[in-house]
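Give me the fold.
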Amino acid sequence: MEFLPTKLTATLAELREPDKLIAKAGNQPIAILDRNVILGYFVPKSAVEDKTLLTASDDQINAFLESKLPQISHVINDLKDR
C-alpha cells in the first residue's frame, strides 16, 4: 500500500467530469488512481492560493546547515573518501 498524503481519491473515469471532481475536492488535493495505483494528484487552485511562501536569507540557511552538520558529518566524510 502506497502512502497517500491526501484523504481523497478519484479514478481516471471521474476526470471526465472535472466540475464534480472540483466540487468533491473542496480545498484538498485528490490522488488520481488507476487500478489502485497512484498516477498523480489533482490540486485545486483554492488549495494553494492562500499559502504564503517563506524565504530564508543566505545567513539563515548557513546557520541551519551548520546546526545540522554534526548530525551529517559522517555522511560527508564518507563521501569525501569516495
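The chain is about 45% helix and 20% strand.
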